[in-house]
Amino acid sequence: MVQHLTSADFDSVTASGRCVVDFWASWCGPCRMQGPILDEFAAEHPEVKTCKVDVDAEPALAARFGVMSIPTLIYFEDGNMTGKAVGVQMKEQIAAALGV
């Protein structure tokens, strides 16, 4: 299941374990392509927290991580950013970035 994050819960959710966060917006065509891929990834990898941040609703989070283009996927392990990818990413690319 994909979890939608806000500034209020972002740090607590990403603090432990492996996590992928998709920075997106509803008006972004490539973001709409990324959504179903993330849904499939989440179903296949329940051990990874799969999350989304709406950049229009949470511009401070986008700025904090230097998100300039969307979709941007940022990878975390135990609260530390371990990678970043701009543009649509396939399930295999996400899995490889997270080492799963």
Automatic annotation (TrEMBL):
<dbReference type="InterPro" id="IPR036249">
    <property type="entry name" value="Thioredoxin-like_sf"/>
</dbReference>
<keyword id="KW-0813">Transport</keyword>
<feature type="disulfide bond" description="Redox-active">
    <location>
        <begin position="28"/>
        <end position="31"/>
    </location>
</feature>
<keyword id="KW-1015">Disulfide bond</keyword>
<keyword id="KW-0249">Electron transport</keyword>
<comment type="similarity">
    <text>Belongs to the thioredoxin family.</text>
</comment>
<feature type="site" description="Contributes to redox potential value">
    <location>
        <position position="29"/>
    </location>
</feature>
<feature type="active site" description="Nucleophile">
    <location>
        <position position="28"/>
    </location>
</feature>
<feature type="site" description="Contributes to redox potential value">
    <location>
        <position position="30"/>
    </location>
</feature>
<protein>
    <recommendedName>
        <fullName>Thioredoxin</fullName>
    </recommendedName>
</protein>
<dbReference type="Pfam" id="PF00085">
    <property type="entry name" value="Thioredoxin"/>
</dbReference>
<dbReference type="InterPro" id="IPR005746">
    <property type="entry name" value="Thioredoxin"/>
</dbReference>
<keyword id="KW-0676">Redox-active center</keyword>
<feature type="domain" description="Thioredoxin">
    <location>
        <begin position="1"/>
        <end position="100"/>
    </location>
</feature>
<dbReference type="InterPro" id="IPR017937">
    <property type="entry name" value="Thioredoxin_CS"/>
</dbReference>
<dbReference type="GO" id="GO:0015035">
    <property type="term" value="F:protein-disulfide reductase activity"/>
</dbReference>
<feature type="active site" description="Nucleophile">
    <location>
        <position position="31"/>
    </location>
</feature>
<dbReference type="GO" id="GO:0005829">
    <property type="term" value="C:cytosol"/>
</dbReference>
<feature type="site" description="Deprotonates C-terminal active site Cys">
    <location>
        <position position="22"/>
    </location>
</feature>
<dbReference type="GO" id="GO:0045454">
    <property type="term" value="P:cell redox homeostasis"/>
</dbReference>
<dbReference type="InterPro" id="IPR013766">
    <property type="entry name" value="Thioredoxin_domain"/>
</dbReference>
